[in-house]
Amino acid sequence: MIFSGGMAVSVEMQHTGDSGLQADVRAVIEHVLADRRGDWRVSIVGSQANDRWEMKIVGPNAFERSYTLEGSAGEHRPEAVRVILGKMLPGTRA
Known about the structure:
Largest sheet: 5 strands, mixed
Number of helices: 2
CATH class: Alpha Beta
CATH architecture: 2-Layer Sandwich
Radius of gyration: 13 Å
Order of helices and strands: EEHEEEH
CATH topology: Double Stranded RNA Binding Domain
Structural class: alpha+beta
Shape: globular
Number of domains: 1
Strand order of the largest sheet: 1-2-3-4-5
């Protein structure tokens, strides 16, 4: 969990495989959310049946979004996660 000026960013990842990739994705998410107000929680859960990761974002003011990251489409890469987050968050554009 990262604390920044009274705000927190929590990233939880399960069943996503490569620990190096997991650390890079976590760092990207923390960086994208670090300057935003309020507490943010992101969970990513991988599937053993396919190459999909289910990402759920919960933030202040009842913000809640979900997205399926497709490994075959390159969406497990940290750069792709950054772009997708940018499109999902309020007040940002990718």
